Amino acid sequence: MRLKDQLAFVRQNVKKNKVRTFMTILATAMGCTFLIVLASVGFGLQETVVEDTLEQQIVTKIDIHGYEKDDEGFRALTMDDIDYLESIDGVKAVTRRNHLQQITTYSIGDYMEETDTVAAHFPSEVKSGLELQEGRLPKENNEIVVGYHFPKYLHPASVKEEDLYSEDGQLKDDYQYKDELLGKSIDMTVNKMDDGKEVTRTIPLKVVGILEKPSREWMQERKVYISQDVLNEIAVFTGTPNGNPVQEDEVAGQGEDADTFDEVNVYATNLEAVKAISDQLDEANYATYSVVKEMEQINMLFTVAKAGLLLIGTIAILIASIGIYNTMTMAVTERAPDIGIMKAIGANPKTIKRIFLLESSCIGVIGAVIGVVVAYAISFLVNFGLPIIIEAAFGEQLPDNLKFSAIPGILIVISVGICLAVTILSGMRPAKRATQIDVLKAMRREV
């Protein structure tokens, strides 16, 4: 019996029992839809979390927190460590910074601003991707680079803080510094405690560059980047490492001799090199962090969650399989005479079994196709409508990139595969029963 004839036999039976077949297909489609939509929640939230994490961090950046000595805890990194890090294959740049251990006041004319100060190694910063909005990099010790938002927060020193800012936390236009900052001299004021009294010192600096605007609107870059020589000068003044104003122990000049760094970051040439570099540093006892490690943990968590959702969704298809089993069992009973005739004229039992498996497979395929289409429609409606409902009901502003549901191709393949497997298995028993029907009883309709 040719495949074409077998398919014609299947179509004939479907036409005879349209309502029953339709209800079975509907149940299968509902099960497949439920499976896809349920699992799509895990895929959607994973996509949102991963995108948000990647947006907030540089994916090729590896933070080095220190070196772990045997039974001695962690130590700060030195130039020897920098040389080793730069020698690793796949490393593009190794930046190192030291942070001034006090909030510094900067003033120009009647305007001032308090912000963080960093001593940076500019050649390595440029290699890592540092770019300027305008100006140039420092060439002299007294030259500095400021963050993109630094000029936007310079404000009159005589105005009270509560009057400076609008409700959204931005400096009011009336109080903003309107002149060109680039090329101007600005005073840096640092302090120390001497016998319980505060002593201040002013260091004149020149602004030669302004950093490029951060890639994200919510990011604020207000730091001031000075040379290591200026930081050493402050350390000598305070008598403490990195200019801490409150330490009592006098270690004058330690800042000049210090060969350690507060912040060291490794930048890989590409994303593929990050994991290999991280693994090598871990083996060398360096304490590291990279977004790749975070992604591995996040993806593992969501993989478990998606597997659980797929398992729950599969239950819906298993429930639908009861209907398929019932439909196929009734089909075998109703077509007993036809089966008897086929066996009487010499039909192979495998052919009879294949006919009924084809029928259950067709139900699964049609149900899966309908389920996929409906799942995509529901996913679209959920992503479009649910944020509106939540914001209206609870007054919460949701992130713009939040996805409640996402349906990747792999989810369709898995869901359709599960659907077809369940429907075929549901038809196995009735198909086997069809091959065991006695010819004489079938002809007398005694089955």
Written account of the structure:
It is found in: Cell membrane. It is a multi-pass membrane protein. Belongs to the ABC-4 integral membrane protein family. By secondary structure, the protein is of the alpha+beta class. It has 2 domains: 3-56 and 297-443, no CATH class; 61-269, no CATH class. The protein is 52% helix and 20% strand. The protein contains 13 helices and 16 strands. Strands 1, 2, 4, 5, 6, 7, 8, 9, 10, 11, 12, 13, 15 and 16 form a 14-stranded mixed β-sheet that branches. Strand 1 (61-69) and strand 2 form a beta hairpin. Helix 11 runs antiparallel to helix 12 (409-435). The radius of gyration is 36 Å and the shape is elongated.
Put the structure in a nutshell.
With 447 residues, this protein is an alpha+beta fold.
Quick tags:
14-stranded mixed β-sheet; 52% helix; elongated
- Total beta strand runs: 16
In DSSP terms, counting alpha (H) and pi (I) runs of 4 or more, how many helices? 13
In angstroms, what separates the terminal alpha carbons?
24 Å
Shape label: elongated
Strand content: 15-25%
What is the averaged pLDDT score? Answer: 85
Tell me the major beta sheet.
14 strands, mixed
Q: Please state the structural category.
A: alpha+beta
Poorly predicted regions are 249-257
Number of structurally distinct domains: 2
The proportion of residues forming helix, as a percent range, comes to 40-55%
- Series of H and E elements: HHEEEHEEEEHEEEHEEEHHEEHEHHHHH
What is the radius of gyration?
36 Å
